[in-house]
Structure formats: C-alpha cells, structure tokens
Amino acid sequence: MDQNAHRAAEEELHRIIGDSEKTRTILEQIKQVAPTSARVLITGETGTGKELVAYWLHHLSARHDRPFIKINCAAIPKELLESELFGHEKGAFTGALNSRPGRFELADTGTVLLDEIGDMDPRLQAKLLRVLETGEFERVGSNHPLKVDIRIISATNKNLAEEIEKHNFREDLYHRLNVFNIHIPALRERPEDIPVLARYFLDTYCRQNGVSSKRFASDALDYLSGQSFPGNIRELKNLIERAAIVTPGDEIPVSALTPNPTPAFTSENQLFTRTRPLSQARNELEKVFLEQQLARFAWNITKTAVELNIERSNLSRRLKQLGIQKPDPYA
Ligand SMILES: Nc1ncnc2c1ncn2[C@@H]1O[C@H](COP(=O)(O)OP(=O)(O)O)[C@@H](O)[C@H]1O
Ligand SMILES: [Mg+2]
C-alpha cells in the first residue's frame, strides 16, 4: 500500500460518526485545539471514544508525522509505570539489566497520550507535575536531566473533581493537564447518534468480512435507540458485530440485538432459590455477574477491572478459577 492509501485507510478506521449537536461540538473542539500545542484533558465514560479523539488531536496537529505514543496508566503496574514513562539506567532496580529510554524520550517532538490518568499513583503524579512545570526529568537511577518537546494529552473515565476531593488526584496536576477539556457525553445522552452509528458499524463489519451487506429490521433501530449502553459506543459496536455474526439473512431482527439470555435466570437453574453451600452460590453468582460485565466491556479485561474497581491481576485470576472463557463472537 502506498503512503496515501495507507493514510486514507488509517483515517477511515478512525472516523468519528454521529450527527448529534453534541458530537458536532466535539468535532468543533477538536478542530479548534488540535493545531495548538495546548494540553488537552479528554473526559468521558468508558467506550465513549476518548482514544479516537486523542488520535485526531495528534493527527490534525503540526506534529502529525512525529511519534504518537499512548500509555495506559491503569494497565501498567504502578511500580513499573515510572520507568515506562521516564526510562531507567542499568541497575536502577532489580531486573534493570540494560538502560532503556522511557516513552517520554521516544515521543520527543511528538504527542503522548496518558490514558486513564485518574488511576495514576499519587507519588508518580508528583513527579509528573514536576516534569510539566520544568520540562525536565531523569531516567530512574540517573541524575542527568533530560529535556524533551512533547505535547501531553490525557484521558480519564473518572470524575477528577471527585478524585481531588478524595485526595486521590492532585489539584495542581489537574490544572496543568486540563488547559483545554473535551468532555464526551455518554451515548445515552445523545441517542440520536445510535442509528447512524449502528448502520456504520454494520456496513463496516460486512465490508471488512466480505459478507453481503445487511440492514436492520424496521423496529431494530428504535429498539437500539431506547437502550442505555453503559459500555457506550464500544458496547454498541460489539453488539452489532455479534448480531451480524448470528444473523444468516440480510435483515437484522430485534431478537439478534437483545443480550444473550443467561442460563442463570432460567427456572431449571434456580440460581437464587436452590439451596446449597453459600460459598458455592457465591461463586455461581459471581460467575454470571463477571460474564455479563465482560460482555458489556467487549472482553477488555483491563477496562472491566477498572470499572469493577479491582486489580487486573485479581480479575484474571478469578476468571481462571471460575472457568470463565471468552465466547466465540469476541475471539
Ligand atoms: N463517534 C464514533 N464514531 C465511530 N466509532 C466510535 C466513535 N466513538 C467511539 N468509537 C469506537 O468505539 C470504540 C471505543 O472507543 P475508544 O476511543 O477506545 O473509547 P474510550 O477510550 O473512551 O474507552 C472504538 O472501537 C472506537 O473506534
Ligand atoms: Mg480508552
């Protein structure tokens, strides 16, 4: 693929769909702030499109052909995040066999996305604040200051005002990061976007998988528009892809869009009424709950762990213990 075709394909992949007033405001804000070097804080629930917005902030800026580096602060164990960001020198800590540049160094002249910034450890928040104030940092285990030219974009699904109240997030850092705020409303606050998004995801799915195009039955889009989508656009996209997979014909009926009926709630199973040891009931209930939540967040373990407020490693362990596996449509 030549450069232009490659770029067009990339951009197609990142299209922001929706013609609600709220979506138009977001597109306006992206156009206004992308070409500047202002720091932007993107807020919104999980699955609302924060990474998508960050992509455009970088790609519509003068830095578009420079590095764009994303770091998910919730996915990297907190002991490792500092060296991930700033790099380390050989021998700085057990296991640091070689010197390694951090993502800030690698992103020099480009853009860094600090995703899930609300999950950053307060100790590291203090270090980050200093970098934002002075523009300088050191690799872990070094006292040689480094200076880089990076634009910082951050994103979070947390309410940072509340986190500041609870002393989980530094207010001074918040002001440094939040020079410009783009807030993405939840999908249920802009239901007008649901039909266009649904059609877009259905068409894209059929095209990418080489199946003949499908459409929605007349009541299907109304049905979707009435749903609350706690997992937002990611949940909608996932639901549409699943419906496309399970519908052999060319018309998607409402029944293909309703959540999988869980065996848990059938009368034979009697999940809540059958008498057995509490520990067994607890495991059975937890299993159903986790399966439902994972489906909601498209089997993104990191995301689900964040939403359920547990460590990712604990969630993974529970999935193994309870024998929970990713069903086919997500694999
Ligand atoms: N307005 C939109 N138009 C098209 N796709 C979208 C839109 N918003 C989000 N998406 C898609 O939904 C999914 C979740 O978006 P993402 O940016 O990862 O959300 P977040 O980072 O807020 O959790 C991605 O597949 C993304 O491409
Ligand atoms: Mg994200």
**Oligomer designation:** single chain
When the domains are counted, the total is 3
Q: Write out the CATH superfamily name of the largest domain.
A: P-loop containing nucleotide triphosphate hydrolases
Shape call? globular
| Count of runs of 4 or more consecutive helical residues | 14
Q: Structural class per helix/strand content?
A: alpha/beta
The low-confidence parts are: none
- The CATH level-2 architecture of the largest domain is identified as 3-Layer(aba) Sandwich
Compressed to H and E, one letter per element, the order equals: HHEHEHEEHEHEEEHHEHEHHEHHH
Q: What is the β-strand count?
A: 11
CATH fold group of the largest domain: Rossmann fold
Summarize the biggest pleated sheet.
5 strands, parallel
Span from first to last CA? 27 Å
Strand content: 5-15%
Walk me through what this model shows:
It is a single chain. This protein is an alpha/beta fold and 331 residues long. It has three domains: 3-185, P-loop containing nucleotide triphosphate hydrolases (Rossmann fold, 3-Layer(aba) Sandwich); 188-258, Orthogonal Bundle (Helicase, Ruva Protein, domain 3); 262-331, Arc Repressor Mutant, subunit A, CATH 1.10.10. 44% of the residues lie in helices and 11% in strands. The protein is built from 14 helices and eleven strands. Strands 2-5-8-1-9 form a five-stranded parallel β-sheet. Helix 6 crosses helix 8 (171-177) and helix 9 packs across helix 11 (232-246). The longest helix has 19 residues, at 278-296. The chain is globular and about 65 Å long. The relative contact order is 0.12. The model has no long low-confidence stretch (mean pLDDT 91). Residues 15-18, 44, 46-52, 197, 233-234, 237 line the site of adenosine-5'-diphosphate.
